[in-house]
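Hey forum,

I'm writing up a methods section and want to include a predicted complex as supplementary material. The small molecule is magnesium ion. I've pasted the protein sequence and the SMILES. Can someone with a working setup run it? I'll credit the forum in the acknowledgements.
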Amino acid sequence: MPKHFLSIENLTQRYPDGQGGELTVFEHASFGIDEGEFVCILGHSGCGKSTIMNILAGLAEPTSGAVLMDGFAVSGPSLDRGVVFQNYSLLPWLSALKNVTFAVQARHRDWSKAQVRAHALHHLAMVGIKDGAEFRKPSQLSGGMRQRVSIARAFANEPKLLLLDEPFGALDALTRGTIQDELIKVWSGTKQTVFMITHDIDEAMLLADRILLMTNGPYARVAESVEITIPRPRTRDEIVEHPNYYAIRNHLVHFLASRSADMAGQAGEATPSIETVHIDRTMPAAVDPGGDSPAEATLRAVNE
Ligand SMILES: Nc1ncnc2c1ncn2[C@@H]1O[C@H](COP(=O)(O)OP(=O)(O)OP(=O)(O)O)[C@@H](O)[C@H]1O
Ligand SMILES: [Mg+2]
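Reply by user p_vandermeer:
Happy to help. Structure tokens for the complex are below, copy them as they are.
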């Protein structure tokens, strides 16, 4: 197996089910993420996405299995891994600016106050928190602005790995679009690796290099890795025109609508490996080495 920047190996999570029994959320989840990749994970509510993220962040211990980053086992939180939680978590008694400087100071203890402040202001401005908004406390900001501050704080720390748990879930469509664009702009200028949970297929297709698909729980598993074969830079308006867009989108919708339930694991089943799905409608059927029918030739799934 090739070495990945982030390796998730045989992760299993069980919880007491509250009735004296046990709930197996997922079993033997294994996948890898390369340095600089932007990977989204899609799956129905309760399949264990946040649980996986908390384990990657070092905030929770799996029942069994391991997470390796840069070859080292993840244990406990680290400044190398920045997290934006499902419900943003700013310190309510500090201004937006201080929420960011607080984190930057922890990372760069040798920086002067002025350096820390300039760095924080730069990252806040990148997500549109400026013109006085940076001096307001979270309760004086809108939900969208609070989420921008969380994102600025995570980016300002320049973690090697950025973990985003439905960061735009609570935002209206317009704000969501603006912050997605900002996220891509910031990510394009760094070599950060991003792992993001979302429920939004279009958001995942706009942002990700790859989308991991999880089957329903209990006994959930990561079943497929779908490559987003649409070149960057991508814009919301243009990607829908790309010949691969609807082919990939239909595959994702079909998975979530029916296959995620059909493929849901059973206790004790041997866990099959993740399938890589590569859909490319731009490739002429004539030069396709597989020699399938033109329709088949463009959709190919191979074991990793
Ligand atoms: N500390 C805990 N104790 C017991 N059960 C838990 C605990 N944390 C999570 N669970 C259970 O694990 C399952 C997965 O939860 P998780 O929050 O990871 O789901 P999710 O995929 O992030 O869902 P959503 O999309 O709704 O955020 C759920 O059934 C949940 O009830
Ligand atoms: Mg969740």
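Some notes you might quote in the supplement: Residues 290-304 have pLDDT under 50 and may be disordered. The chain has nine helices and twelve strands.
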